[in-house]
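Whiteboard transcription, Tuesday session. T.W. wrote the structure tokens on the left side:
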């Protein structure tokens, strides 16, 4: 067939959908556990929101947005990330007037016109959180620990938490001046991207993955040396709380992030297993963004994780949701009774498969083993008459006869 999915987009199905669901379900569970509430915002917003929110000079706004004019002549953009939309919603509904501390989580597709490769797509999913109304570094530590717990609950280890502080806007301006001076000295040796970035967004030069640039910038001044008293105190307290929570972290003084709204704490959770797309979760504080978008001075912090990147790290064997019961029925007269049995099992949250075409016992047992069913119930004419069913437990090898109620109790007991 000639028609294929658009470059940078993909279908998620088969064993991948188990991974996808596991990630979303685990995120929900962990975030609810920390007192977060779900929020759903539109997939598209006014372009201006992202221009003002993310920053005109970022790669995302400059080159990566899916922007179009709708039939009413409005400039619309498919959201490249979730933070700006959640902030817009929080301000629009004046939630700050009703609550002091607001904690939201979200998940859904985001769109960026990037060069596709493993772990980098044009449509990708994020799960994220945003917290409004609190500037305490204990919250920064709690959020980082929540991101780490989320990854751990997925069975993903071998991760490194990197932290840094970008200070306030004044600290950053002072720093940028010094950094620019340093970059000017090294200008000729830098890649074209860095040469372009240096003028508008010099911090991003520090983030360049090019080895030559990394070498040239080895001696560059570090933002941490430009923090004022407040920001320094915040950063020191963050580290103290992380230690208290027994969260391992590495300080990365070159961690700057690609979006413009960050102040003070920034962090990433990275893996070495995904090459240059190794950041699986990233975020930080953005205490000035609400002022920028809605003239409200409210501190905020959040993060987002890339679902596809997490999927690449999940082990296949861990996620397959097992078929619990396979019902094999013999003879057309037991078919509708077997259907009724499958219904009783499913009502009790027991995953059950039954086929509708009449097949030999051998063929059905083969199918049960292909599906990796844990139990098989065999129903023939005798079973239908007596209500006593043949039950086989594949794990223990046990084969006996029970009523459906006894089977349900037994399976539930084992699941506990
Ligand atoms: P971000 O660093 O742009 O931050 O994206 C967060 C995560 O989304 C990345 O670490 C990565 O795992 C995933 N990601 C980003 N772009 C792609 C892509 N093209 N393909 C696949 N995965 C991708 C944000 O979006 C901020 N809104 C995070 C935040 C929330 N900061 C504060 N609150």
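and on the right, the sequence the group agreed on:
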């Amino acid at each position: 067939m000639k028609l294929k999915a658009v470059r940078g987009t993909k279908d998620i199905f088969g064993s991948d959908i188990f991974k996808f669901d596991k990630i979303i379900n685990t995120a929900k569970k962990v975030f609810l556990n920390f007192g977060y509430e779900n929020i759903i915002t539109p997939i598209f917003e006014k372009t201006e929101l992202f221009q003002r929110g993310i920053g005109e000079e970022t790669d995302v706004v400059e080159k990566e947005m899916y922007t179009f004019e709708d039939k009413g002549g409005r400039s619309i953009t498919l959201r490249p990330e979730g933070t700006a939309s959640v902030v817009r919603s929080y301000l629009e509904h004046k939630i700050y007037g009703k609550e002091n501390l607001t904690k939201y989580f979200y998940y859904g597709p985001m769109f960026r016109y990037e060069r596709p490769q493993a772990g980098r797509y044009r449509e990708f999913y994020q799960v994220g959180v945003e917290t409004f109304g609190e500037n305490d570094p204990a919250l920064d530590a709690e959020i980082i620990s929540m991101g780490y717990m989320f990854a751990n609950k997925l069975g993903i280890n071998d991760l490194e938490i990197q932290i840094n502080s970008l200070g306030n806007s004044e600290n950053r301006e002072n720093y940028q001046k010094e950094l620019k001076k340093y970059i000017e000295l090294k200008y000729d040796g830098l890649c074209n991207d860095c040469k372009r970035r240096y003028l508008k967004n010099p911090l991003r030069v520090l983030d360049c993955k090019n080895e030559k640039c990394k070498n040239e910038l080895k001696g560059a001044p570090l933002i941490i040396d430009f923090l004022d008293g407040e920001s320094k105190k915040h950063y020191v307290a963050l580290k103290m709380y992380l230690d208290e929570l027994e969260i391992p972290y590495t300080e990365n003084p070159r961690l700057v992030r690609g979006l413009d709204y960050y102040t003070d704490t920034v962090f990433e959770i990275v893996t070495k297993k995904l090459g240059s797309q190794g950041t699986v979760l990233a975020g930080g504080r953005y205490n000035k963004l609400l002022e920028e978008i809605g003239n409200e001075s409210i501190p905020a912090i959040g993060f987002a994780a890339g679902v596809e990147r997490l999927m690449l790290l999940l082990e296949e064997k861990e996620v397959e949701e097992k078929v619990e019961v396979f019902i094999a029925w013999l003879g057309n007269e037991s078919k509708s009774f077997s259907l009724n049995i499958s219904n009783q099992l499913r009502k009790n949250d027991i995953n059950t498969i039954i086929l509708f075409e009449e097949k030999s016992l051998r063929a059905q047992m083969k199918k049960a083993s292909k599906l990796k069913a844990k139990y098989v119930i065999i129903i023939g004419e005798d079973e239908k008459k007596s209500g006593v069913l043949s039950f086989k437990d594949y794990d223990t090898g046990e084969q006996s006869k029970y009523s459906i109620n006894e089977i349900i109790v037994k399976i539930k007991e084992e699941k506990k």
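Someone added at the bottom: The chain has 16 helices and 16 strands.
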